[in-house]
Batch of 2 targets.
Target 1
Amino acid sequence: MAQPADTARKSIGARRNPASADAILDAAEAVLVEAGYSGFSIEAVARRARAGKPTIYRWWPSKAALLFDVYQRQKRVDTPDTGNLEKDLVGFLDSLFEHWRSTPSGNIFRSLIAEAQSDDGAAAALADYAAGRRVTTGRMIERAKARGEVRSDVDAVLVADMVASFAWTHLLTNRLNGEEAAIRGAVRYILQGILDHRA
Amino acid sequence: MAQPADTARKSIGARRNPASADAILDAAEAVLVEAGYSGFSIEAVARRARAGKPTIYRWWPSKAALLFDVYQRQKRVDTPDTGNLEKDLVGFLDSLFEHWRSTPSGNIFRSLIAEAQSDDGAAAALADYAAGRRVTTGRMIERAKARGEVRSDVDAVLVADMVASFAWTHLLTNRLNGEEAAIRGAVRYILQGILDHRA
Amino acid sequence: MAQPADTARKSIGARRNPASADAILDAAEAVLVEAGYSGFSIEAVARRARAGKPTIYRWWPSKAALLFDVYQRQKRVDTPDTGNLEKDLVGFLDSLFEHWRSTPSGNIFRSLIAEAQSDDGAAAALADYAAGRRVTTGRMIERAKARGEVRSDVDAVLVADMVASFAWTHLLTNRLNGEEAAIRGAVRYILQGILDHRA
Amino acid sequence: MAQPADTARKSIGARRNPASADAILDAAEAVLVEAGYSGFSIEAVARRARAGKPTIYRWWPSKAALLFDVYQRQKRVDTPDTGNLEKDLVGFLDSLFEHWRSTPSGNIFRSLIAEAQSDDGAAAALADYAAGRRVTTGRMIERAKARGEVRSDVDAVLVADMVASFAWTHLLTNRLNGEEAAIRGAVRYILQGILDHRA
DNA sequence: TGCTAATCGAGACGGTACGTCTAGTCTTTTT
DNA sequence: AAAAAGACTAGACGTACCGTCTCGATTAGCA
């Protein structure tokens, strides 16, 4: 966290003051945590950061852009590599749910998705981000393909999409708690399918 | 659509005027279609419906409640029963994507999900609705279990959750077009899994 | 006071229900006392009287008319007749100030004057009422003229107007307390004038 | 009158824009003249001034405060000094009645008095204003005392109060026309009294 | 060293929407 | 026929935010 804005920050000349940027991002995160998405307004962030509204608008053209930068500052959950795809996927989802539950990330991301439903810029940024994450997540599947664990014709990005969809939907419907069994089940279905092969 | 409100509607006594309710729901849908979720306000709906704001607030305590009723008026996509689960699921998702693409339903539902991120009432209503839909969708899997097509230990509701998640996420990220292959792929992975069993 | 409207009054057939009229006037007075003129609305009176708004509008075409009837129910201060005009006028004003101070009458009358500034009906009713009161008050002066106490060419109604004006203005500017000396002074000036006749 | 707001006024920095203040006061006066006190609303003023409602509320906490400032902008009738108190008082009242009749001042002041009956702030402001005016008006009597025209023990402020009361009451009851004789009579009674001294 | 230019906090501006309150009208049901 | 009840359109209330604008102060870098 940056310095608290006890004393007013001044201009540092004809260039961006990083202290202001930090203070604004800190304030945005704090407002989101304390007041939720419905209480998240540029006004509130400016008040909290002791910043002028134009300072915010100068650097972030919209609420969505600010939200996006706040989200980007958060730690990401990284993909495990245990040598076993089932363990990897279950571990990834467990970590992701835990991360969303116990840090502001979950609320920030929910807000970002909501914002993307009314702001084209946010939608585009979210689409980019999500596509990138699908590739990253897909690496787990690619590794499993390389190990021969997964069929070579499997679309790793599509599988990553299914995994991410499961996570997003649980986030958006407040189902992050006590979902360990569901996570295990969903991963197993993707890996092994649900058909009865005895027939 | 109900009658256009050319002449002002009057009270019909000490009970709800269905013409007003219809006009408000019609107007809400129209505003959502024409101005999108970001332009969707109680004011705008009242203007469009030639209704007083208190009339709206009397019957719908929040924007979310109104959105929900607008969504409920829409036709639902029903679950096919072809005797083959793969055909059922693919057909269901194809129909759902088409429905969301070509009617206001998609935008309404997106808006409802967004609203649920900042309104607890909307969140609860959405959770209820989604749970119900998982059961309905799950019937396709139950039928397949009864046919012996699917293993008897499979959790039908969880599978429905996975299917719905895939659809929701595509809706929320504007990926409803040209997804036929992805739909087929995803359904196949759920049915057959992605593991390589030759090993 | 009429019966409290604990249980809803019912229609008594095709004629005016006097209990309703009383309940409405009682409620109007109570609302005025408790919430003041700013809180005095037909809506509030109807709520308090457990009456429908149309019932009020049927009998009193405007807020002003209702106010006027509420005022009319109040006791009036009557004009003393001591055989001495100074005592009569001072006594009258003392009683009037006391009456306005200690009963709802003062607030009701203030409200009526205020209402008359935006409602023509109220203005006309108030004008009628005030003209009548000037005549009544003027009787004190007429009696003094008959006694030879006051010059015969004096316009009794004009004097009554001056006395009433003094009272009204004190009411409207919250100067009803501790004005005994001012009352005595004003009455004396009207009776004896202020000119220095030694010249 | 200030410039018409053909082009939208902008902020002129972190301080009050006098053009907005002027436009708002102009609009308030115009609304009062055209629609009367009953049509006088902050909404109407904002519309007419092409100003935002918050701009009005920022500077005038209540309708009463705005009314008061509108009234303060009006010209005041000043007290004549002819060397003869009767001429002074009659001239003053004639001018005041004429001023109230032919300019918006009369309606504005009536509205202010009405507003003061339901708004404590307006009541206080009006009390202050009226007290000040009594002192100003009282100077006519003080001058007459200095000339020996009026007894030295006469309370000039009380006499001014009587004169003002007469004027206020005529304003509030729409009796500003054809009152010349009444004015003369009232002034004469105050100066000479009404008692018959032949006795 | 003095000027220019961009940045800062600050807060006013015209607006829109919020959710509530009241006005005055209307219709049905009950007596 | 009148009362109770409560819905209806309409619009004002006072507040919160929106995104823009202008200020005055501040400071780096260029002249």
Note: Chains D and A do not touch (no CB pair under 8 Å).
Target 2
Amino acid sequence: MPELPEVGTVRRGLVPVLEGCMIARAETRRPDLRRPLPERFAERLAGARVNRLGRRSKYLLADLDTGETLVVHLGMSGRVLVSGAALGGFHHAHAAPGQHDHVLIETAAGVRITYNDPRRFGLMDLWPTDRIEAHPLLAGLGPEPLGNAFGPGPLAAGLAGRRMPVKAALLDQRVVAGLGNIYAAEALHRAGIAPWRPAGRIAAPRVAALAAAIRTVLAEAIDAGGSSLRDYRRTDGELGYFQHAFRVYDRAGQPCPAPGCGGSIRRTVQAGRSTFHCPRCQR
DNA sequence: ATGTGTTCCTGTCCGC
DNA sequence: TGCGGACAGGAACACA
């Protein structure tokens, strides 16, 4: 579910209530998500101050003053909701946890952060902050698409020699970190590249256009607060609205929005994932 | 080494 | 209305 813009939006919502704040209490309502939660997870969080809340690819990273970093991935259906902020000294009661509320974190200021994940494809881990780049899930990640380490050159290098469809290559987090099914399809449409084209067989100018399209579509989606289809919500429970700006994703049979194109959006399946594209203007 | 298929889990939607 | 099957923002893993 959440790709880079959604995780970035969650981070934006959490920064004001978490960064610089103390975790007063944590509660795990089951022992595992996709994999077991860390040993003594709640105890290791309680009393810790959050020095900084960052994001790497689709991971949230909360640096604690205990020397550990809390690593959170939302999987397909993970949500983070903020509630119960103390306003003017008035603390209102927290709602009873719901069925898929798996982890609760409460700050010293009376804010509750609820991690909800029906499918439990998400994960949480604790890892030494000074070695966070060596975390097994982070070590192999490619460049951040919005950072200086990404551009036409790095993208071309990541795609070079690969015969798999470029759409599948964009989902490989080693090539570029943070793209998922929506934004890979949207970036390819903006760049006019067909999703089944072999990744290593795209001319340099078109790879450059793709790198630019990746950056712009992600930046626009972040501005829109991400895309809400089914599960995703912002931390205040509101919807993102970038789904209204989709040009191909989930638009099978609808007209291609490219000016003067007149094509019709098609849905196909690649590597087990739905792909949407316009056969007319994507080559 | 690369690339594809399967799997984890729950919820929703659609056709019969 | 019930039931089965397809499908869903991810990605690790087993395999050809």
Note: Chain A has two domains: 4-134, 152-277.
